[in-house]
From TrEMBL, chain A:
<feature type="repeat" description="WD">
    <location>
        <begin position="228"/>
        <end position="264"/>
    </location>
</feature>
<dbReference type="GO" id="GO:0000938">
    <property type="term" value="C:GARP complex"/>
</dbReference>
<dbReference type="InterPro" id="IPR040323">
    <property type="entry name" value="EIPR1"/>
</dbReference>
<dbReference type="InterPro" id="IPR059104">
    <property type="entry name" value="Beta-prop_EIPR1-like"/>
</dbReference>
<keyword id="KW-0853">WD repeat</keyword>
<dbReference type="Pfam" id="PF23609">
    <property type="entry name" value="Beta-prop_EIPR1"/>
</dbReference>
<protein>
    <submittedName>
        <fullName>EARP complex and GARP complex interacting protein 1</fullName>
    </submittedName>
</protein>
<comment type="similarity">
    <text>Belongs to the WD repeat EIPR1 family.</text>
</comment>
<dbReference type="GO" id="GO:0005802">
    <property type="term" value="C:trans-Golgi network"/>
</dbReference>
From TrEMBL, chain B:
<dbReference type="Pfam" id="PF15469">
    <property type="entry name" value="Sec5"/>
</dbReference>
<keyword id="KW-0653">Protein transport</keyword>
<dbReference type="InterPro" id="IPR039481">
    <property type="entry name" value="EXOC2/Sec5_N_dom"/>
</dbReference>
<keyword id="KW-0813">Transport</keyword>
<dbReference type="GO" id="GO:0007030">
    <property type="term" value="P:Golgi organization"/>
</dbReference>
<comment type="subunit">
    <text>Component of the Golgi-associated retrograde protein (GARP) complex. Component of the endosome-associated retrograde protein (EARP) complex.</text>
</comment>
<protein>
    <recommendedName>
        <fullName>Vacuolar protein sorting-associated protein 51 homolog</fullName>
    </recommendedName>
</protein>
<dbReference type="GO" id="GO:0005829">
    <property type="term" value="C:cytosol"/>
</dbReference>
<keyword id="KW-0445">Lipid transport</keyword>
Amino acid sequence: TYSIADMIMGLEFSARALTPQIAETDAIRFLVGTQSLKYDNQIHIIDFDDENNIINKNVLIHQAGEIWHISASPADKGVLATCYNKSKWSCVYFNTLASDSKVMTCAAVWRMPKELESGSHESPDDSSSNTQTLELLCHLDNTAHGNMSACNFSTASAFIFILALFVNTPFFFNAQLSNSAALEGKGQLKFTSGRWSPHHNCTQVATANDTAIRGWDTRSMRQIYYIENAHGQLVRDLDFNPNKQYYLASCGDDCKVKFWDTRNVTEPVKTLEEHSHWVWNVRYNHSHDQLVLSGSSDSRIILSNMVSISSEPFGHLVDDDELSDQEDHHQEEKTKEPLQDSIIATYEEHEDSVYAVEWSSADPWLFASLSYDGRLVINRVPRALKYHILL
Amino acid sequence: MSVPQGGPLPGPAEPGSEPPGGKRRPHGMLKLYYGLPDPAGEARGGLPPGGDPGGPTDINGAHFDPEVFLTKLRKECSLAQLMDCETDMVKQIRALDSDMQTLVYENYNKFISATDTIRKMKNDFKKMEDEMDCLAANMAVITEFSARISSTLQDQHEQITKLSGVHTLLRKLQFLFELPARLTKCVELEAYGQAVRYYSKARSILHQYQHMPSFQGIQDDCQKIMANLAQKLREKFRDGGSGAKDLAECVELLLQLDEPAEELCDEFLSHARCRLEAELEALEAELGQPGGAPITDVLEFIDRGCNIFVSNMCLVIASYQELFVSREGVQGITRMAQDKLVAFVNSLMETYFSLVERRIQLEKGVGDNSLLVRALDRFHRRLQALAKLLPASNVAAEGTEIVVRAAKERIRQYLLALQSFYQDCLTDVRQSLAAPRLAGKESPNLAELLGTISASVLNQIKSVLTYVHLFTAKDITFSNKPYFKGEFCSQGVREGLIVGFIKSICQTARQFCETTGDKGGSTPPALLLLLSRLCLDYETSTISYILTLTDEQFLVQDHSPITPVTSLCAEAREAAQRLLNHYVKVQGLIISQMLRKSVETRDWVNTIEPRNVRAVMKRVVEDTTSIDVQVGLLYEEGVRKAQSSDSSKRTFSVYSSSRQQSRYAPSYTPSAPLDTNLLSNIQKLFSERIDIFSPVEFNKVSVLTGIIKISLKTFLECVRLRTFGRYGLQQIQVDCYYLQLYLWRFVCDENLVHFLLDEIVGSTAHRCLDPVPMEQSVIEVICERG
């Protein structure tokens, strides 16, 4: 189905990193990190005013280097973490690219200026002159473990845990206690992605390396499940179902999105094969977990309605007292509705590979996607489906 | 006979005289005389005038008037006629005269002899009269004597009659008195029939006079003896050693002795059951150990069953019916006996059927089944005889059921056999693909392999069809059953076997496409390609050929729904498409992996100035070439878009793509959303979206295009994840130029290759810390050298 994007905007740089400002639940706000080897990289704070259909943008300078991955703290609006390549542009400038120069991927936790936490409502024209810098909270570097590939905040609010995936070892940091621990893993594993499980009081993480997915318990630091050959090729991303604790979605270079029950990992529960190239991103909707987004280097974003394996397999559950009046009426409607997994929409506003797609943390019906050419597109769940789910 | 036309013959004809000219005349005259109609006279209708019969002019008539006749003649006839008439009449008169004389003479002689005879008779009668008088007197005397004797013998006669009555009665009584002794003797002599005959003669009398003590005694004795006899008969009956005829006699006698028929039926049947069950046990032993091989082949087994068990069963039924059922007797007995027989036959046949079925189930061979069909035919044929003997039982229907089940089972087994044959073929192909290639030998020719597998599968199908066709042969008794005329052909052979097999081929094909996850031990790509071509061939010709063959051999007479050829073809085509898509995916992945490794493992920042094309690129081109050869063996060339004259010489610069230039132009001024939108829309007008993993067409160019698309897109994505130094960029330039030199010839639209290679070089430049591109001429020199 064809849909018209709510908003399309272009960043001047190519970009891969996108995250919603998770701690913000009122305003629709996304953070985008740019990739540039020659110029100062930036973090764009994108505010979307959906009533007026206006985008407000604030730019923070990220001088540390080009951003490969960004994540926002679920507890503190102002805190974010980035994975970045150390900038070499100054070296290049002075033509001192020595033989020892190596591209290192590092990670750091930052705090943005207070006034930007809740967005600014200045006019977009001013924002260019109004660039501000980030305050470094801590480095997550550990040279012994090599390059970083991703870092993620835990969603538990009491402590801030950060899962830092070094290329060789998944690490997790307790930002407040400022200590860290490595998860046990054997051999040289190249981790590509990792996610915290929002369940089990945030003690579990899942990581991806090559074609396998591994689950870890951060208390014992042990592997708890292992999905060998989860995908035919590299696994690119993971996401936990926010409402069903054993359900996990994954995507990869075999063009597939797979859904797993971590209690029985011999076979995926469901497989979607809709993309025509690598799938880089998969995301469950936080409120209605039947809605799943996937972004691919075929430049498409696909929104699927996975009713059969969602926490609401029979549609939206209505409270008993609500039901009392029109119970019969509802019952009738329920039986009429066919509950089938389906592709809701394919969004084709991008022209380059889409490396990131994220739901808004404030509006469950809205999401943003980012393609390599720096195009950010904000889209909505089709109205018909929205009402279908709500009513 | 000519009639005189007249003539002067005076006097009427006398009845005694013979008129001249033949024998009919006198009768005519006599008849005339007696007033009867004269047919001869009537026939003389053609008389000349005056010849009216009976009239005065009829010379032969009673009222002949010569005067009238003469006047008439004179009036009507010419002189010549008159002369003729006269001569004629004179001639006739002379003849009549001589005749008359002869007659008179003859009659005279006769008269004299008659007178003599009468005189002699007169004398004889006189003598006879005397003798008769004498006889009458004698008779009177005899009558008198006889009357006298009768009256004297009257009393004695009455006495004699009485005596002879007494004599008969005494003889009867003697028979009765002697009866026990006789019976005993008969029993001793084993002349049971005689004994029963005696007894049945006396039984009613004894019964009638049983109130008299003496008769009572006799009756008791007789009854005792007869009970004994009955006992003996029964023993004999039970003994079973005697032949069928003896047995029949026994039953006959017992029935005459008023033994209860029901009991006899039961005994007869239970006796028969013992023997038949023994036969069944022997038959069961032929089955061999459970799980083991049967001792005899199926035809021999059925033969044995038919010859021993079924024929004995027939004998039992026949003799039973003779004994109990067709007997002129009470209807109740017949009915009861018949019911018993049916139950008996059904229960035994059930056991027999289960044995037969067990034996048939042991037939698992998937080759020629003529033996089985013949066995089934015999089985079925023999049952017809039995069913004819006993129409009330359901053996015929059940037998047909067994045959039908056996046929269904055969079809199922043949389907499995075909499937496993197909799997074996695939294994063979796999092996020949995987076999280490001998030096100097070509790799296995895919086209040949395809031909082999296709031909052998087709042959197998044909031979299976031949085997199955035996079930419908004309000389097989069950082939005219409705199942074998209709459902067997359509649902069984066509749907169950042939369509099922074709579907399973497609199913197998789909399974090959679903094992993407496994990296090791997965299907060799060549097999995928081969199977795809096989399925395509099935779609284009083989399926319709096989189905036509089937429909011809098995003329389908019923109208149950059958899978149309088109839907099977569609399925095969879909399978072919999936296999080919999967082939492209797998081959693309293999090349992708090479490219990915080569990009990921290198330090692109600190690399040295390129002197050569990297080996991996040569490998990519080599592999692509060999894939091209491989695909070319099975698929047609396909269509290319028109190519520029010197596509290999096309140059491209790092920033050749104008959209890259505009997109990555460094700028700190944020553009308004609208502008970007507009810009992107304009860009969309110029570039078609490229679907990387998209279905391919059934030709070489399309397949190769698919593989190259996948490989180059991987290359692009990998490049974007790395950071490059100046020489890194230059190396990519060299590599891409090399790829361009060689890859364009494989694809349908060389612009596609150019576009993707442009993207790769553009992205590399974008990811380059020090983007100083290499001179095109240098690139060309390096590529031509390598």
